[in-house]
Amino acid sequence: MKKMKKVFKVIGIILGILIILGLIFFIIDYNRVENNERPIFCIENPAHIMDGGTAEFFGLGYKVIDFHTISGFDYIKIGTWFMKYEDFEKEIEENINQQPESNLKYKSLEDVTIDYDLADMIDDKCYIVMNSNTVYHIEELYNFIKNVENNIADEIRIVEYTKEDQPILTNLEYRNNKFILKVDNRRDGYANKRNKKITIKEYDATKYELVKENKPKVITDLKTYYPLKLKEIKGIKSVKICNYVTVKETTKYNFQLEFNKDLEKEEITKILAKGENNKYNYNIYSYKGTVNIIVNGEKMSLHDALINNKITIDEILEKADKEAKESNTIYGDIYADGGSRFYIYNDYSILKLNKLEGNKDLYIGVPSMNINDIYNL
User: Fold this and answer.
1) Is residue 228 within 8 Å of 241, Cβ to Cβ?
2) C-alpha distance across the termini of the chain, in Å
3) Where are the domains of the chain?
């Protein structure tokens, strides 16, 4: 009996010590949490919550959750072992709703539709590097780098084109000592269907720095483009932001056709009549839609561009011929009717007649336009 009493006494002393230590540890860690500091008398749960970096810690009878979410909820909470992440979902949502609408420049990638096109990107002042070495708003990149260096919240949207001329959108946001990287490849027709999505990753700006590589990737049109990446400050890891691997040698084709399908229009619409500009002894038509063109960042109708000599049909055809030879995705063919040429892009097609009987007209229409459709008109 005496032996049992001694055992209970020892257990009681141990429990008492544990309770006292637990209280001391709790008070110390509680004060640290109040100062938004991580606890020191806790063991971290190795199974991290995949929401941007939130971590759980277990102490003697208490629990700490250090929230670090992509949405910007950065608080540390302390409670019992029964405290759960889900207990704070309402508070996280309220925090998101209370954040200012935005001091950032762009509509969220999640809210940008698939038909977001080059004209929209230019209007939004995205930094765009195209395969033809056409570049828009490089000053936006320089301003972003400068703001990061001066610890000013900012955002840059970078648009790069694949070798098949498919746009990949990359948003890099800097705020609250974090880099938030979003990559949107939903417009890449050659990506695996499962991979067509927006990926989001977050990097601690105290551990990663924005680096512009010393050696330029491409020098063209008196502009220098540097690959951009996030690099570990103390380490060797790096994350590519923009690489410009598809940028080609300097070319004069500083324009982009834009075809807008319009089923309510008549099948054939005259863009430019023969003789309206003395450069052209043939008619120029659109087929089941309208045609605009973006020249040096300025969007206009193809009619206005041709009348004002902003562009020529020869340049359009030269570019189409060059792209058909260099790309596996742009179809080009020459017909045995005198030399008519036909090019099919993802969004439109170009048919330049050169028939033996003298018809030299040009048509820009839907991708499904067929030379027989035109012959039968």
Assistant:
1) yes
2) 112
3) 2-98, 109-242, 255-375
Encode 48-74: b = buried (16+ Cβ within 10 Å), e = exposed: eeeebbbbbbebbebbbbbbbbbebbb
Amino acid identity of residue 337, one-letter, is D
Which residues are within 8 A (CB) of 36 and not within 5 positions of it... i.e. 6 or more apart? 75, 76
Token output for 240: 């590519």
What residues contact 308, with CB distance under 8 A and at least 6 apart? none
Q: What is the pLDDT of residues 240-299, one digit of tens each?
A: 887 654 444 444 567 889 998 876 667 889 999 988 888 888 999 999 999 999 887 788
Distance CA 232, CA 236 (A): 6
Report whether 229 contacts 211 (CB < 8 A). Answer: yes
Would you say 227 and 242 are in contact if contact means Cβ atoms under 8 Å apart?
Answer: yes
Cα-based angle 83, 70, 226 (whole degrees, multiple of 5) = 155
Q: Are 77 and 54 in contact (CB under 8 A)?
A: no
Place of tokens 């605009």: 292
35: number of CA atoms within 13 Å, CB side? 8
Report field, pTM of the whole predicted structure over 0.85: no
The answer to whether residues 85 and 49 touch, using CB atoms and an 8 Å cutoff, is yes
CA atoms within 13 A on the CB side of 250: 8
Q: Can you say whether the dihedral through the CA atoms of 319, 325, 331, 337 is positive or negative?
A: positive
Distance CA 359, CA 337 (A): 10
Spatial contact of 221 and 133, defined as CB atoms under 8 Å apart? yes
C-alpha to C-alpha distance for 367 and 347, rounded to whole angstroms:
6
Q: Which of 216, 103, 118, 211 is nearest to 152 (CA)?
A: 103
Query: To the nearest 10°, the Cα dihedral for 281, 282, 283, 284?
Result: -100
pLDDT: is 358 or 193 the higher one?
358
Residue 85: pLDDT over 50: yes
Nearest to 48 by CA among 72, 30, 68, 29: 68
CA–CA gap between residue 158 and residue 140 (Å, rounded): 9
Q: 99 pLDDT exceeds 70?
A: no
